[in-house]
Amino acid sequence: MHPHQDSAPTGDQVAAPGLLGAGDVRRLAASLGVRPTKTLGQNFVHDAGTVRRIVRAAGVEPGETVLEVGPGLGSLTLALLEAGADVLAVEIDPVLAGALPGTVASRLPHRAAHLGVLHADAMTVTGPADLPGVGVTIPAADLPGVGSAAPATDPPDRAAGPPVPTSIVANLPYNVAVPVLLRLLPSLPSVRRVMVMVQAEVADRLAAPPGSRTYGVPSAKAAWYARAERVGTISRTVFWPVPNVDSALVRLTRREPPTTTATRAEVFAVVDAAFSQRRKTLRSALAGWAGSAAAAEAAVRAAGLDPTLRGERLDITEFSRIAERLPAPASGTLSE
């Protein structure tokens, strides 16, 4: 067992009351006709100790509203509800989205009204108004499998305002973890804390400081929104199917972005350009965006930085200073 991992039962041992064990996960998947797919990055957690550990590490408090992305069969969802949170779950798989309310109702009936489910791609969430209210299941229009698994209730009444999640807690699919985080952090400014389980390599990139081997675009862009830190490792054995990579927990704590006259899009465009040719100096890497190597050098020097440095040495504040002195980004530059 990894030194960072809490001691907890795994495999086919009996799960805690209400939570899902290995046998429960397999039986539930079989009843739904679900086979985990690599396309959706589905690896289902089947260990009660692990999901409770994630909830504790996230600092979830009774009564707070938590956004969960990719709840799957509901292992982490049940642990969040058990801790007293209201959970807004966004699930891209129509069968899983439709089945989740029934799973909660059968295992934690006293907490079923505290769950809201939206069948959607998390990348389409642009703000709180896109999320369901608790006690509401919103399927996509007439998708097969959703209505039969859990009939949708009426859409929530927005007169009282949309739900306001204060935390994100999720087991994110490895292939979309960074894009999802960089979409949700600006879209949901009410979120102050994030705890996500991701591929260990992704965790290292998100939490990497400037100058480290793994520091890059995800590290710099995440730093615009939050302070990221890796807080533990998760054993492969708590997943079904067992992945061929390690997983880790990353905590992000919201903070104010750098004070700058540049927009986020302008700063992120500098980040993208600086890392597009990682081994080149800022003078060379930023030449295309600035118009020439000479213009890039002038901008970097005006920002008080050495143009012979590489992008991996700069923090987000220094990227912001350069963005203030460069011309507008070319069309098509990534801004998320």
UniProtKB/TrEMBL annotation:
The UniProt keywords, alphabetically, are: Cytoplasm, Methyltransferase, RNA-binding, rRNA processing, S-adenosyl-L-methionine, Transferase
Under the heading SMART domains, the entry gives: rADc
User: Where in the numbering of this chain does the Ribosomal RNA adenine methylase transferase N-terminal domain appear?
Assistant: 50-256
Locate the residues binding S-adenosyl-L-methionine. 43, 45, 70, 91, 121, 171
Q: What is its main location?
A: cytoplasm
**Superkingdom, natural source:** Bacteria
Please name the top-level EC class of this enzyme: transferase
Keyword match Glycoprotein: no
Where is it located? Cytoplasm
Q: Which reaction does this enzyme catalyse, per its entry?
A: adenosine(1518)/adenosine(1519) in 16S rRNA + 4 S-adenosyl-L-methionine = N(6)-dimethyladenosine(1518)/N(6)-dimethyladenosine(1519) in 16S rRNA + 4 S-adenosyl-L-homocysteine + 4 H(+)
Query: EC number(s)?
Result: 2.1.1.182
Cross-referenced Pfam families, in alphabetical order? Answer: RrnaAD
User: What's this protein's function?
Assistant: Specifically dimethylates two adjacent adenosines (A1518 and A1519) in the loop of a conserved hairpin near the 3'-end of 16S rRNA in the 30S particle. May play a critical role in biogenesis of 30S subunits.
Q: Return the HAMAP family for the record.
A: 16SrRNA_methyltr_A
Instruction: Name the family the entry cites.
Output: Belongs to the class I-like SAM-binding methyltransferase superfamily. rRNA adenine N(6)-methyltransferase family. RsmA subfamily.
Name recorded for this polypeptide: Ribosomal RNA small subunit methyltransferase A
Q: Which organism was this protein described from?
A: Georgenia halotolerans
- Name the encoding gene, please: rsmA
